[in-house]
Amino acid sequence: MKTLKTGLVLVTAIAAMGLQSVRADQPRMKNALRHLRDARAALENAERNKGGHRERAIELVNQAIAEVEAGMAVAR
Questions:
Q1: Can you tell me whether residue 1 is helix, strand or coil?
Q2: What is the dihedral of CA 26, 29, 31, 34, to 10 degrees?
Q3: Contact predicate 26/72, CB 8 Å
Q4: Which of 36, 47, 55, 75 minimizes the number of CB atoms within 10 Å of its CB?
């Protein structure tokens, strides 16, 4: 869960900076995307008995990944 929280905080911080300040290669967005994908993999490999919270966390990480990808597409 720490990786999930870190990834979501990172995405929020990047969004607050504004996409115009990010260079064309978008290293911070790419880094956030990598962290989110790592978080998703960790959640998918976690034990399943979490009262539905693990599945919900995976859904939220998937949403965050989609938002980062959309932001990257806009900045191109």
A1: coil
A2: -130
A3: yes
A4: 47
Tokens of 49: 């008995």
Per-residue pLDDT averaged across 10-16, rounded? Answer: 64
Average pLDDT over residues 62-69: 98
Q: In whole angstroms, give the CA distance from residue 45 to residue 39.
A: 10
What is d(CA 30, CA 50) in angstroms, rounded to the nearest whole number? 30
Residue with tokens 């911080």: 13
**pTM > 0.85:** no
Q: How many Å apart are CA 36 and CA 51, to the nearest integer?
A: 22
Question: Residue 3 burial (CB < 10 Å; 0-12/13-18/19+)?
Answer: middle
